[in-house]
Amino acid sequence: MSTVTPDYCTLASDIKRWSRELGFAEAGISGVSLEKDEQHLLSWLKDSYHGEMEYMERHGTRRSRPDELEPGTVRVISVRMDYMPPGTQHAWDVINDAEAGYVARYALGRDYHKLMRNRLQKLAERIRAAVGEFGYRAYVDSAPVLEKALARNAGLGWIGKHTVLINRQAGSYFFLGELYTNLPLPVDAPASAHCGTCRKCIDICPTQAIVAPYRLDARRCISYLTIELKGSIPEELRAPIGNRIFGCDDCQLICPWNKFAQDTAEPDFAPRHQLDGAKLVELFAWSEEEFLRRTEGMAIRRTGYEGWLRNIAVALGNAPPSAEVSAALLARAEHPSAMVREHVAWALARHRPHFPAE
């Protein structure tokens, strides 16, 4: 173990270089003070905008106080990794094809959690080789972390009106990860905001989930409804969901800053099973075994098989009437899951006026 006090300025520069060598697009360093963000979080929770994500409330201030989550933390190294795969079907083309199922672009390939966590571990090992043993812990959506606020403070971008982090040189199509550490590294300057008077993300949201600038009601958000929500989707929100069967990108797709978005160089994020524009009827026909096999190692697993069928049933209810769509829905009308049956019945009712006369 080294007994020499590290040159922390040089170490910070090395960390950023090592991060790029490990496949991260950028890294920055921040302190642990998040008082204003904590007040925003507590207000958001008070308004019940977190819906059924009760863990958001259960974690309390550990989310906004890094040194409570990991005692001894004085700095946070934030990293980002671009995820948009080159050659992917254009998002608007899929959204405008009501017979296709839209999957959020981040979820088309391998689940990023393990991949990024492994890279963060390698970054920690490089730091340890340089300075000896030190305190750290890596996070990628694996604990209560205010990752966007920390990344903003580390200079990686600003939090847009849609509550997504935006980078001036790279838009918003990237993942975030953190390395909490006890090393007193020099901190970077926080990013300044550049949304100006633009409100395109607010206006385009299909379910009007962005209730005010920087204020998202998750209970109306399509990403929440199709992934986090485990029960029935509120009936008044089913039609606005359209053909979005796992997540939603509209607020990012419309953002002018995404003209600077960078394609990912990570081959594991490439679309699997043609999910960047597969037909709804084909996806609805997947058995549970097929679903589990085809989504192995993918974020789509998070919704579960019943949630997958629920989401596709809604999309089929919003699809153009056809004998093929009606047949697909009728084939699931007696599904063992009450939740699936409910959404199939809703979809069939939408198509019933178009059924051929008996």
From TrEMBL:
Its main location: cytoplasm. It comes from Dyella caseinilytica. SUPFAM superfamilies: 4Fe-4S ferredoxins. Keywords: 4Fe-4S, Cobalamin, Cobalt, Cytoplasm, Iron, Iron-sulfur, Metal-binding, Oxidoreductase, Queuosine biosynthesis, tRNA processing. Cob(II)alamin binds at residues 63, 141, 165, 176, 223, 248-249. It catalyses: epoxyqueuosine(34) in tRNA + AH2 = queuosine(34) in tRNA + A + H2O. Pathway: tRNA modification; tRNA-queuosine biosynthesis. This is Epoxyqueuosine reductase. The keyword tRNA processing applies. [4Fe-4S] cluster 1 binds at residues 195, 198, 201, 255. One of its GO terms (molecular function) is epoxyqueuosine reductase activity. TRNA binds at residue 230. Binds 2 [4Fe-4S] clusters per monomer. Catalyzes the conversion of epoxyqueuosine (oQ) to queuosine (Q), which is a hypermodified base found in the wobble positions of tRNA(Asp), tRNA(Asn), tRNA(His) and tRNA(Tyr). The active site is at 141 (proton donor). Its cofactor is [4Fe-4S] cluster; cob(II)alamin. The keyword Transcription regulation does not apply. Monomer. [4Fe-4S] cluster 2 binds at residues 205, 221, 248, 251. Its EC number is 1.17.99.6. It is an enzyme of class 1 (oxidoreductase). Residues 183-215 form the 4Fe-4S ferredoxin-type domain. It holds the Pfam family Fer4_16. Belongs to the QueG family. NCBIfam families: tRNA epoxyqueuosine(34) reductase QueG (TIGR00276). Coiled coil: none annotated.
